[in-house]
Write a structure and sequence with these properties.
The protein is an alpha+beta fold. The protein has 2 domains: about 160 residues, Beta-Lactamase; about 170 residues, Reverse transcriptase/Diguanylate cyclase domain (Alpha-Beta Plaits). It is about 40% helix and about 25% strand. It contains 10 helices and 13 strands. The strands form 3 sheets. It has a 6-stranded antiparallel sheet, with helices on both faces. Strands 8-9-7-12-13 form a 5-stranded mixed sheet, sandwiched between helices. α1 packs antiparallel against α2, α1 packs parallel to α4 and α6 packs across α7.
């Protein structure tokens, strides 16, 4: 039985939509999620039974280790491919089921060899440097049947591979330029840029309001001096995770301002609401056990650190006479200093700091 015939025009239309999707991809989006649409194109538009995404995990001598990231297999035809599992492929003499996986990896090109009695994969290679997580293989499988792969299907996979490789590298470069690698939040440059954007927009919307909060981990130097800088990094990382998951999705952003200081931006938010949100953050951090680690970074069983943060909040309204982001941030910093002076683990509003 031959493979169902796909439609070249439909594939072309989907490739156009794919380009639009990838072009607008958020720099924070996970690389794995970028393959969801291509996998659907493979299975539905190109008429394959199964579509699969592999991440190149390692190469040990002649063995290729692949992580099975995603699989769309509604008929359950490929039980050997289990999401989250690992696949070992011998590059010199691969199992018949994985001939195209081996060939695509070795040539870094598309492979679509038909294997009698097994069927045909069409597997593409998406290059990403190791610093971005390494390469991916993805493709479709017309299982156990004669392939009859069309030239335009091969061309379509090739276009998708080029799209994915080029645009994913672009978004990952952007991500590295904007994100603090330790906390996963915006870096100092980007969070200052975000604050500047809010101030400049405020000139056109003077009746709106916004707030920023400067936060600082209390006694952070003591953590570094007592437990080492690896422990300090773990505290910063955990703090970043708490801030990231606690912020609202629409208007709020957070960044590592420098060292153990964090800057939070609450757009379209008044002082009272900003205070409530930051107070919840402060209590969450105070109640969170921070895992203690040894000098190598290995977690110590049932040993935790108690961490608190102090905050200062400054609002931006028509009455505050703030002209620049630097001035706005300076007010939040002054309020933070007041919190430190008054005993730490507390929040101070700028007007109270005066």
């Amino acid at each position: 039985m031959k493979k169902h015939t796909s439609d070249a025009k439909m594939i072309l239309n989907h490739l156009g939509r794919l380009f639009g999707f990838l072009k607008n991809l958020d720099a924070k989006a996970g690389v794995d999620e970028s393959f969801d649409y291509p996998l659907e194109i493979l299975r539905q538009t190109m008429m394959f039974d199964v579509s699969v995404l592999y991440k190149v995990s390692n190469v040990i001598e002649d063995r290729l280790i692949l992580e099975i990231v995603k699989k769309i297999d509604p008929k359950g035809l490929r039980p050997d491919l289990s999401e989250g599992g690992r696949l070992r492929v011998f590059l010199n003499a691969p199992d018949k089921r994985y001939v195209n996986e081996a060939a695509a990896f070795l040539t870094q090109q598309i492979s679509y060899e038909n294997v009698p009695g097994i069927g045909c994969d069409i597997i593409g290679y998406v290059y990403l440097p190791d610093s971005f997580g390494g390469a991916y293989l993805f493709g479709g499988d017309f299982y156990g049947k004669q392939s009859s792969v069309k030239y335009y299907e091969v061309a379509g996979i090739e276009i998708m591979c080029n799209f994915l490789s080029t645009l994913l590298m672009k978004t990952q470069f952007q991500y590295q330029a904007e994100i603090d690698h330790l906390t996963g939040l915006f870096n100092s440059y980007k969070i200052k840029q975000k604050a500047d954007f809010v101030v400049r927009r405020f000139e056109r919307k003077p009746l709106s309001s916004a707030c920023i909060a400067m936060g600082d981990i209390d006694f952070f130097k003591v953590v570094n001096d007592t437990y080492g800088h690896i422990q300090g990094d773990l505290v910063l990382k955990k703090t970043g995770e708490i801030l990231s998951t606690s912020m609202r999705e629409v208007f709020d952003v957070a960044g590592r301002y420098g060292g153990e200081e964090f800057l939070l931006i609450f757009d379209e938010t008044d002082e009272a609401n900003a205070f409530q949100i930051v107070e919840r953050l402060r209590k969450t951090i105070e109640a969170t056990p921070f895992e203690q680690a040894d000098k190598t970074g290995k977690g110590l069983e049932n040993k935790f650190l108690h961490v608190t943060m102090s905050f200062g909040i400054a609002s931006l309204t028509k009455d505050t006479d703030i002209k620049t982001a630097v001035d706005w941030i300076a007010r939040a910093d002054a309020a933070l200093y007041a919190s430190k002076q008054q005993g730490r683990n507390r929040i101070t509003l700028y007007k109270e700091a005066l």
